[in-house]
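Lab notebook, page 48
Experiment: co-folding of the full assembly
Goal: obtain a model of how the components sit together before planning crosslinking
Operator: M.T.
Materials (sequences as entered):
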Amino acid sequence: MIRLAGIVKSFGELPVLKGVDIAVAEGSVTALIGPSGSGKSTLLRCVNLLEVPEAGELVIGAETVRFTGRPLDREAVRRVRRQTGMVFQNFQLFPHRTALGNVMESLLVVLKWPEAKARARALELLDKVGLAHRADAWPAQLSGGQQQRVAIARALASSPRVLLCDEPTSALDPELSLEVVDVLAQLAREGATMLIATHDLRLAARVAQEAVLLDAGEVVESGPAAQLFSRPRQERTARFIATLGHGAVPG
Amino acid sequence: MPHWLQLMLDSLGPLLWAGLVFTVPLTLLSFAFGLTLGFLTALARLYGPRPLVAVARFYVWIIRGTPLLVQLFVIFYGLPSVGILLDAFPAALIGFTLNVGAYSSEIVRAVIASIPKGQWEASYSIGMNWWQALRRTVLPQAARTAVPPLSNTFISLVKDTSLAAAVTVPELFQAAQRIVATTYEPLIIYIEAALIYLALSSVLSALQDRLERRLARSSGLVPEGAR
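Observation: model returned without errors.
Model output:
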């Protein structure tokens, strides 16, 4: 179970999250949707402490972190980050390492695995995202969709409890984003726990069971994804889904 | 054999010897120490607490704002009056190290700052701490950008070591001066010294070229066909 409670975060004078509560059950996929600036990326980044909230609480597995405005204990940050993997909008692969090197990095540096064991595990993960044959390619030689799939493998390397995806398809054109959606859907079927910030309804509808609509730093509505997309209870949810221009969403 | 050629050949030995024993070690040592100092200064300015930032800025300000020759004079001729007596070589080494440290710190600071924030975040997200992210992700990428400007500093340094002659280090240029004092052939001997400096910096330029190409290759920036 990953739980965020009463999360408050502002950038300077600007409040971004105004007391957000969400919970993600183990083995389920939750889509965080909402307009730009709604705070969904920030909320996601609070889960692995790339952003530190001013107030609230994060529970991830056995770890509970309370935010009080004081700097966090480094060890606690490390423990939280070991239980989370993150996929970024712009991939952020390490350009000076091959696809394989990118996936091996956390195993070698953070978990201190021996080279051979790390290599075997990394190849297994690249195979899972359909890129074992590109293991020795440099990021610059891969398409955007391939780069994002390597990034997913990298995020999964240390077997995180939850995979955080920050707009994983927004930097890709529709054709390339499909291969990323396929990989994420596959992971979801295998029981991975994921929290996905997105405004790609195709991604959300195919991968997520649960959905949370965030607007202006507050949760507007949450519930089963299919229901939220097809029969939203809140006027604001309906308006937002209409702006995405997809009309009826399958699922 | 023409007189000038005979003269050049006769003086080649002592000049090369002075270069080998003083110019080259002075250059290599002060570059190595200077780069270390520059790296630490850059880290202090980027990530240090306020007082440390102030110290680092003050140091860079002083060194960059005063002539190298004057700095060498202060260290070698000036410091003895406050009881700090240094031999010529260590005095020159300190002067050049401080100089390289200040200039290279600006380069190191700029290239580290040029690495996108996302690369730090990607490193943190896979569990690295600050030092691991710096060492494994940021510095290897920064190093590639830093090679051309740092090579520039290095080549300038080779030539600048001739200033050590003024604080009695018997390096290449001082050896030339001594030969001129006995042969009265300044044109020929000083041109010969200049040619040796030219050869040294040309070798370094060639090495820089090779290093740049190797670094580019190890990041997939060179298309497959060009390998």
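Interpretation: Chain A is about 35% helix and 25% strand.
Next step: discuss with group before ordering constructs.
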